[in-house]
Design brief:
Length: 489
C-alpha cells in the first residue's frame, strides 16, 4: 500500500518491514555493550592488566565511534545511507566476532576499535527512518527505537553477569555474534537505499580537525578521575582539544563541502537539540552510575543486591519506557514535540529531586519506593529524548539528514563520557572506608556515601530543569496533527 505525503510517495508495507530492522538494532547493541560491563573484572584478571588499562576497552570504542558517527553521516548523505549503514554494521559485526577470539589485550583493543566504527549505524538508521517512512509514522518508530535502548540494558546486565560467571567473558561476544550477522542479513535484504544523495568529495581536513578536537577531550575526561582534573596531562589534553575545535570551526566555515556544516548544526532547533541531548546524556549517565551503586552496595549505603537482582529491579523502568515511547510517538503529531519535551524534562527533574532529597532514607528499607521513583524518572527521560530526536529530523533538509544525526551522536557521546567521569569524582569525594569480611586487616575499599548520591541526583535534577527551560525555545515542528517542520528540499 502506498501513500502520498507532501508530494512524496511512501510504501507502507516496506515501512513496516523496515521497522523490524531499526527497532531490533538498539536491542542488539545494548545487549552487546551492557553484557561487557559485568565482564570487565574477569578480563582484567585474564590479561593481568590494571584498572586504568581495562577502562580503555570502553574508551577506545567510544573514541572511534564518536568520530565515525560524524564521518559516516556525511558519507551517507554523499553515497547513500543504506550503503554506509551496511558498511558500519559490517564493521560492528566484525568487531563483535573478533572480540570473542582476542588472544591479547592489545588485540581486544584493536577489535573494539573496529566495533566502534559501527556506532554510525544509529544516526544512519534515524536518517533512513525519516526519509523512507511516512512523516506521521516517524515519531512512533523513533519512540520504539528509543524504548529498545532501555530494554536492551535491562536484559543485558543480568544476562551478561550470568554468562560471564558460567561460560566466561568471551561468550558474551560469542552469544551476540550470530544476532549481529542476522541483523546484517536482514538490513541488506529489507532496507532500501535513501532517496536523497548529495554527491561530492569528503572533507578530509575537516575529518582530521574533528579527530584533533574530539579525541584529546574524551581521553582527558576518561582519565581525569584517576589522575586528577588539574593534573598536567589532563590540562594539556583539554588545551589540545580546544585548539583542534577552533581549527575545525575556522576550516568548516570556508570548506567547499564541509564535513559538519556549521549553519546546519548551529541553526535554532538543531542547536537546542544538540546541546540538550549532550546534557541529557550527561544526566542519564550520572543517574545510572548512582543507581548501580545504590542497588549493589551493602546496607546502609545501598540495598545489597546482586547484578542479576539489580537488573530485575530495573525491569519496571524498562517496561514503562516500552509502553510510553511508542505511545508518545503516536500522540506527538497531535500534541506537538515541544510540549512533550518540556513535560518529559520536568517529570525527570522532579523525580530526581525526590531521589536527592530522600537519598539518605531510601537504602536499605525503601527498595520499592526507590524503584518506583526511578521508573517515574525513566518515563520523563523517554518523553524528552523522543521529542528531541523528532525535533531534529523534522527541522533539517532530508538531503543533509546524515550530517545532522551524525553530529547529534557526537554531542550525545560527549555527554555520555562526562557523566561517569563526574560521577566517579563525586563518589571519590564522598566515601567511607569499608573492610570486606575475610580480607586481610589492611585491605579497605571506598564505598560512596548517601551524600554522594544526593549530589549526583541533585545535579541531574538541575540539569533536567535546565533542559525544560531550554525546550521552551524550540520552534514547534508538529501542530494540530500536521508536521509543520517537514523539509524535503
Amino acid at each position: 500500500m502506498e501513500v502520498v505525503r507532501n508530494g512524496e510517495t511512501y510504501d507502507l508495507s516496506y515501512a513496516k518491514k523496515a521497522t523490524l530492522v531499526v527497532v531490533l538494532l538498539p536491542l542488539l547493541v545494548m545487549y552487546t555493550e551492557a553484557m561487557l560491563t559485568p565482564a570487565l573484572p574477569t578480563i582484567q584478571k585474564e590479561f593481568a592488566i590494571n584498572p586504568n588499562d581495562v577502562s580503555w576497552i570502553l574508551t577506545i570504542y567510544l573514541l572511534v565511534g564518536t568520530v565515525s558517527a560524524a564521518i559516516f553521516g556525511k558519507l551517507g548523505d554523499m553515497y547513500g545511507k543504506k550503503k554506509m549503514f551496511l558498511v558500519a554494521l559490517g564493521f560492528y559485526t566484525l568487531g563483535v566476532i573478533l572480540n570473542g577470539f582476542a588472544p591479547s589485550f592489545e588485540w581486544l583493543l584493536f577489535s573494539r576499535a573496529i566495533q566502534g566504527l559501527g556506532m554510525a549505524i544509529f544516526p544512519l538508521a534515524f536518517s533512513l527512518v525519516r526519509e523512507e517512512f511516512p512523516p506521521e509514522m516517524v515519531p512512533q518508530v523513533q519512540g520504539m527505537i528509543s524504548a529498545m535502548f532501555g530494554v536492551g540494558m535491562v536484559i543485558a546486565l543480568p544476562l551478561g553477569a550470568y554468562v560471564t560467571q558460567h561460560w566466561g567473558w568471551r561468550w558474551t561476544y560469542h552469544s551476540a555474534a550470530p544476532f549481529a550477522v542476522i541483523m546484517f542479513i536482514l538490513a541488506w535484504k529489507i532496507l532500501r537505499e535513501s532517496r536523497y544523495v548529495n554527491p561530492g568529495k569528503l572533507d578530509w581536513p575537516g575529518a582530521l580537525f574533528l579527530v584533533w578536537a574530539v579525541v584529546p577531550a574524551l581521553v582527558a575526561v576518561t582519565r581525569a578521575p584517576n589522575i586528577g582534573w588539574t593534573a598536567r596531562e589532563t590540562l594539556v589534553l583539554f588545551a589540545l582539544s580546544i585548539v583542534g575545535a577552533v581549527f575545525l570551526a575556522l576550516w568548516e566555515r570556508r570548506a567547499e563541502n564541509p564535513l559538519i556544516p556549521l549553519d546546519i548544526v548551529t541553526s535554532r532547533n538543531p542547536a537546542i537539540v544538540n546541546l540538550g541531548i549532550m546534557f541529557a546524556a550527561f544526566g542519564i549517565s550520572m543517574m545510572s552510575q548512582a543507581n548501580t551503586y545504590i542497588f549493589q552496595m551493602k546496607p546502609p549505603y545501598g540495598f545489597g543486591k546482586s547484578i542479576l537482582e539489580s537488573g530485575l529491579l530495573m525491569t519496571p523502568m524498562a517496561g514503562v519506557m516500552l509502553v510510553i515511547a511508542p505511545l508518545a510517538g503516536k500522540l506527538m503529531p497531535r500534541i506537538g514535540a515541544k510540549p512533550l519535551a518540556v513535560t518529559g524534562a520536568l517529570v525527570a527533574s522532579s523525580g530526581l529531586a525526590v531521589l536527592a532529597k530522600y537519598a539518605q532514607q531510601f537504602p536499605p528499607n525503601h527498595l520499592w519506593a526507590f524503584v518506583a521513583v526511578i521508573t517515574y524518572v525513566g518515563a520523563g527521560i523517554t518523553l524528552m529524548n523522543i521529542s528531541f530526536i523528532n525535533v531534529l529530523v523534522f527541522s533539517v533538509s532530508q538531503r543533509v539528514m546524515g550530517i545532522a544525526t551524525g553530529a547529534n551522536s557526537l554531542f550525545r557521546n560527549f555527554g555520555s563520557t562526562w557523566g561517569p567521569a563526574i560521577a566517579g569524582t563525586v563518589m571519590s569525594t564522598y566515601y567511607v572506608l569499608f573492610h570486606p569480611p575475610g580480607a586481610p586487616s589492611w585491605v579497605q575499599i571506598k564505598i560512596p556515601t548517601t551524600k554522594a548520591y544526593e549530589v549526583l541526583f541533585g545535579t541531574s535534577a538541575g540539569i533536567y530543569l535546565f533542559l525544560a527551560l531550554l525546550s521552551l525555545a524550540i520552534v514547534e515542528v508538529m501542530k494540530g496533527g500536521k508536521i509543520t517542520g517537514d523539509m524535503t528540499d
